[in-house]
Structure formats: C-alpha cells, structure tokens
Amino acid sequence: MKRFGEKLRLLREKHGMSLRQLAPKLGFSVHGYIAQIERGERKPSADLVVKIARLFDVSADQLMMDELELD
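Request: output the structure for the sequence above.
Response:
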C-alpha cells in the first residue's frame, strides 16, 4: 500500500479538486490529514479507503494494491 497516497493525489487532481475541497467530502473539517496520507506519512483507515473508493468510483483493491493501476 506504499502507492496509496500517490493514487489519491492522482485521483484528486484528475477530478480537479484541491485538498481543501476533498477534505469535507471525506468527512474532515481540515485538509492536513489528507495531505499527510498523500505524502505517505499516515495510513488511511479501512473506512476512509472505502469512502475514497466510492467518491472516485474505483475499487478499494485498486487503491490499496500497489501492483494495480487506476483506470
């Protein structure tokens, strides 16, 4: 799951969202935690992985498994 943050940033940018725009969509009032995940400093909870997968219409496997690419 080393590439999770990279994939999250790619999806966010692909959808034209800033960190500040993404945070409330995932249930956060500030974007710092999301930024830490993107930089690989923190790992997301299983609940957050599911929220991200649903928001961007990708599978949780695509997000979590380094060998799987995003479509």
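The chain has one domain: 4-64.
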